[in-house]
Design a protein that fits this description.
single chain, 249 residues, mainly alpha, 6 helices
Length: 249
């Protein structure tokens, strides 16, 4: 059998080899392009995720600053915006994990990020709940002032210092509920002590009066209740600081 190839056969074989090589090169190019597209999509999602996280911080800041400034409507908008973006960010964690180029270790890190977002959302909800409680307490505290003042005025004798201390205290309490700083709380505590001290002095003066002694006892009950509400308000302020620290960590 002859092993000699004709010119036509040699040309045909050459063309076949060239086509095979082109197919291999084309497949390699396609696979390389496919990976480039996957990497591009991955980093596109990462950039979007970072943008969302940044917007969460912006909405949270808007919420807190609006509350601080008494702008309730803007505060609610900031809160709702942050919650929506938090939910979106947690959904995106799942989308990023689904990329084929993400390995097991990176998936664990993404799971931790999702847990951080979930905790952030929880802390923000707790912060908002504390704000609602504070608002209710502020109304309760304000409603205690007039009955206490009237009860003191019913004492008739030697009540000027008591009335003065109560009015000074209420002014400082209003300042604290509007701006809950440590300095304002220190002023509240100091002046509450003044009110307590002046009440003790007055109770001593009316101890022998069957008419005024019951009034002194009623004033003391109202004073203690007033103090308990102030402390509850302070507790909520401290809770909010803890939630804020967690969100900013």
């Amino acid at each position: 059998m002859s092993l000699t190839m004709t010119l036509g056969k040699r040309i045909a074989l050459g063309i076949a080899i060239m086509l095979a090589l082109m197919a291999v090169v084309g497949m390699a190019g396609y696979m390389g392009l496919d990976r480039v597209m996957k990497v591009t999509a991955f980093y596109g999602d990462i950039n979007e995720f970072q943008r969302i996280v940044a917007s969460i911080k912006g909405d949270t800041d808007q919420y807190v600053m609006a509350l601080y400034s008494g702008m309730t409507e803007q505060g609610e908008q900031g809160f709702k915006g942050a919650v929506v973006q938090l939910d979106h960010a947690m959904e995106m964690v799942g989308e990023i994990k689904a990329h084929s180029i993400v390995d097991a270790e990176e998936k664990k890190k993404l799971d931790l990020s999702k847990e951080d977002l979930r905790q952030y959302k929880k802390n923000m909800a707790e912060y908002a709940q504390s704000e609602k409680i504070k608002s209710q307490l502020a109304l309760e505290i304000d409603s205690l002032y007039e009955p206490l003042l009237k009860k003191i005025e019913a004492g008739s004798l030697w009540i000027d210092e008591l009335i003065l201390n109560l009015k000074l205290l209420m002014g400082l309490v209003n300042a604290y509920t509007n701006k809950s700083t440590d300095e304002n709380w220190d002023s509240v505590e100091k002046n509450f002590s003044n009110l307590t001290e002046s009440l003790q002095v007055w109770k001593g003066k009316v101890e022998s009066s069957d008419q005024l002694r019951p009034i002194a006892e009623e004033i003391e009950v109202q004073r203690q209740y007033f103090k308990s509400k102030l402390q509850q308000y302070k507790d909520q302020v401290m809770n909010q600081r803890n939630y804020a620290d967690c969100m900013n960590a």
